[in-house]
Write a structure and sequence with these properties.
The chain is of the alpha+beta class. The chain contains 6 helices and 11 strands. It has 3 domains: 1-30, no CATH class; 31-109, Sandwich (HSP40/DNAj peptide-binding domain); 137-248, Multidrug-efflux Transporter Regulator, Chain: A, Domain 2, CATH 1.10.1660.10.
């Protein structure tokens, strides 16, 4: 759902002979079979690749809004790290275009041949790779948050990827919110920030404001700041009531 646009004085007549109101038009964009909308004119595409393409890399053909283009996949590229095609997104207001982000999805042959199976068995016996190494560090919270918690010392800290899983967002969207200052890391910064668990609920508030109400990022920042001030005032008021012995 796109943010609403306003046409001044195109609404209904005002009460008591007052001036006409404004007309607000809210646009609902239908989902596309391939592309998904992101923020600021950016779009994303999930691109299937074979396991050997993920390991070895290579050049592949990628669909875009302007037609297929060639893109190079670096060797050993993690699936959660997006590749970017600059200026392949939607047109931006005024001038320019957003970018297209490509998320790699590793798929396996639906009916491998006997030779392929033999080669995979040989790889399994020769390789020392353990895909589940380090899983003891991750614990899933089996509640409504569905958060993936990364235990880094005695305190639960979340990576960008953990936040994305917990809120059903793309990691790039989380990074954009972080870059705008809507979510602050507790440590790390730079390319490896980590966040406290309460960042999950903060992100969900941001998503509700963006998707349900069409609030822009500046408006979201103002609303969150006002909410924090109100919560601080409520805590101060409660503390004062306790000091004065006033019961609720």
């Amino acid at each position: 759902m796109a943010p609403s646009s306003a046409w001044p004085r195109k609404g209904g007549a005002g009460f008591g002979g007052g001036t006409r109101g404004d007309l607000y038009l809210r646009v609902h964009i239908l989902p596309h079979e391939r592309f998904r909308l992101r923020i600021g004119g950016d779009i994303e595409l999930e691109l299937p690749i074979a396991p050997w393409e993920a390991v070895l890399g290579g050049k592949v053909e990628v669909p875009t809004l302007d037609g297929p283009v060639e893109m190079r996949i670096p060797p050993n590229r993690p699936g959660w790290q997006d590749l970017r095609l600059k200026d392949k997104g939607l047109a931006l207001p005024g001038s320019g275009r957003g970018d297209q982000y490509v998320r790699l999805k590793i798929v396996v042959p639906p009916k491998p041949t006997e030779k392929e199976i033999d080669l995979l068995k040989q790889l399994a016996s020769e390789s020392g790779f353990n895909a589940r190494a380090g899983m003891e560090l991750r614990r899933a919270l089996k509640d409504e948050t569905r958060s993936m918690i990364l235990w880094r010392t005695e305190r639960a800290l979340l990576t960008v990827e953990d936040l994305a899983r917990a809120t059903d967002l793309h990691p790039g969207q989380v990074e954009k919110f972080v870059g705008f200052g809507l979510v602050d890391p507790v440590a790390g910064g730079g390319s490896n920030p980590v966040f406290a668990v309460d960042a999950v609920e903060r992100l969900r508030r941001i998503v509700r404001l963006r998707r349900d109400l069409g609030v822009n990022l500046a408006g979201v920042a103002a609303i969150l700041e006002m909410r924090e001030r109100m919560e601080n005032l409520q805590r101060e008021l409660q503390h004062l009531r306790l000091r004065l012995g006033i019961e609720d």
